[in-house]
Amino acid sequence: MSVDTAAIETVNQEFYAAIESADLDKMTEIWAEDTTDDQVSCVHPGWTLLTAARRCCGPGR
Question: Most CB contacts within 10 A, which of 20, 27, 45, 61?
């Protein structure tokens, strides 16, 4: 399996720029662009796995 490290780094930079500018639409475009069922997941250090966009991207997340 080939990994395009440069592409991953570019998307990562774009995602964190969206976080810094509080651009939820851009964050969603990057993070959940290919989901059709609103199913996303995230893990914060010390937390349990969160699933579903409303839990991952809701207020205070």
Answer: 27
> Does the predicted model carry a pTM greater than 0.70?
no
Instruction: Report yes or no on 61 lying in a domain.
Output: no
Q: Which tokens go with 57?
A: 């991207």
What 3-state class would DSSP assign to 50?
Answer: strand
- Three-state DSSP state, 3: coil
Per-residue pLDDT, 31: 77
Range of the domain at 23: 5-56
Are 18 and 30 within 8 A, CB to CB? yes
Number of domains comprising the chain: 1
